[in-house]
Amino acid sequence: MASTRIRRTPEESRRAILQAAEELLVEGGLDAVTVRAVAKRIGITDAGVAHHFGSRQDLLVALLRHGGRRMRAAIEQAVAEWADSQADVNGLIRTIARVYDQGYAELAVALHAAGWEDPGVGFLEPVVQILHATRTRAGRPGPLADTRLAVAALHQALALDATYGPAFRRSAGISESAANRPGPQRTWWANTLRTTLGLPDD
Fold this sequence. Notes:
- 27% of the residues are buried.
- This protein is mostly helical.
- The chain has helices spanning 10-28, 35-42, 46-53, 56-81, 89-113, 125-137, 144-171, 176-179, 183-197.
């Protein structure tokens, strides 16, 4: 007996494809995200996936942007919840790392290495502004450009840590078991950011 094909609107199909691709990314890493695997997971043909997203490369770019939207939404919510407009640096690091740890770091590194450039800018702007306001109230205003550089450095570190962090830590003489635990490194980044910008403890 033939299976009944699920009828979806184009928007529903795109959401289902991205959800399936994200699940595969989390479960098996970048290599697991193929047009065929995505199609099989939601019960459509390879051509159906290609109709909405084109090539695998196009699908991966769309998936990375999907992850970026998730991160932006999570960061905006976190900023809105920070008490008295004072930045929670540890919370910020957890928010960004949570998305990258789900495979998006590997995806971002691979796409950028292949020459793709994201035209989007400024999704960490709310973080820049609240960190700068916090340091100003703490009596350490400094130039806004320094705050931007500090946030950029933190973002770069978190993006690379999910993929390369253990190897980098081992290169500094940290033991194998400790190198695989990102917690102490993230605490160090939080402390360094607070010291560099003159922020109060969370």
